[in-house]
Amino acid sequence: MSLTRVTHQMSQTTALANVQRNLAAMSKLQGQTSSLRRIEKPSDDPAGTAKALRLRAEQRALTQYDRNAADGKGWLTAVDTAMQTTSTQLIRARTLVVQAASSGTTTTESAEAIALEIEAVRDALLGQANATYTGRSIFAGTSDADAAYAAQPDGTYSYAGSAGTVDRRISEDVTVRVDADGAALFGDATGSVFALLDRVAADVRAGADVGPAIAEIDAWHNRTTSALATTGARTNQIEAQLSVNAGSMLSLRSDISAVEDVDLAETLVHLQAQEVAYQAALGATARVLQPTLLQYLS
């Protein structure tokens, strides 16, 4: 049976190693106390680090969804404003046409005044049809055209929009359309609401019967009110999703905190215990490192 000889130098080495180990543990706890973070580097908790990275990726995605939703609300607000004004202008056009149709024989001056007002309505509608949000037409689909509509030399109005839609993803599985179909709301070429009002203005000047145009204006107004309802529903959908996203964000923050952050009270208790252990290790090491008689004699 062999006995392992424990030399004084071995005792010193062991004691110093214990001191260093206690000092490192105490330093780590002090760092956690000051930063309030349990994971300061990946090696502290590889599994926790992986989970934290996944949670933060979800948090970034949710933040982007909220940005998309805010932008989408901006689009829909612009669409709603333009269509509300369009509705008002169409009601005004109807009033003017009813006035012209029911007045019977009118003077040239009064007919001209009504025709000019109808043309003013046409211009106002054209302005709304070319409304933009952040520099993009809200009625031109995905087209990058400067304006959705343009008056042509032949008296028609051409539509420069595309069939594509402007959409915003507001959650992992929810996408909302945030523009409106200009061609459906205002028409195109000779079939546009602008061309209709041009024709009505000309008929008023000529003293022709404009009564049938009332039903046509009503049809255009019905399109507008229907589109307004759709826009309102989409806005409500975005607002509801923003509320859901807010709840998800709170949950994510809580989950991230549970993984990354320290329990301060618990950490302070561990730190105090580690400080006691460190002081004890220092005391023991000091005794081991005291010079012996043999060291003086050697």
Total helical elements: 8
Beta-strand content estimate: 5-15%
| Secondary-structure element series | HHHEEEEEEHHHHH
Question: Largest sheet, described in full?
Answer: 2 strands, antiparallel
Name the average pLDDT. 84
Model description:
69% of the residues lie in helices and 6% in strands. It is rod-shaped and about 125 Å long. The two termini are 30 Å apart. Strands 1-2 form a two-stranded antiparallel sheet. A two-stranded antiparallel sheet has the order 3-4. Strand 1 and strand 2 form a beta hairpin. The longest helix is centred in the first third of the chain and has 57 residues, at 46-102. The protein is mostly helical. Helix 2 packs antiparallel against helix 3, helix 2 packs antiparallel against helix 6 (212-260) and helix 3 (108-129) packs antiparallel against helix 5 (193-206). The chain has two domains: 53-254, f41 fragment of flagellin, N-terminal domain, CATH 1.20.1330.10; 262-298. The protein has eight helices and six strands, in the order αααββββββααααα. It has helices at residues 8-35, 46-102, 108-129, 182-186, 193-206, 212-260, 264-288, 293-297, and strands spanning 132-133, 136-137, 149-151, 157-159, 167-171, 174-177. The model has no long low-confidence stretch (mean pLDDT 84).
In short:
The protein is mainly α and 298 residues long. Helices cover 69% and strands 6% of the residues.
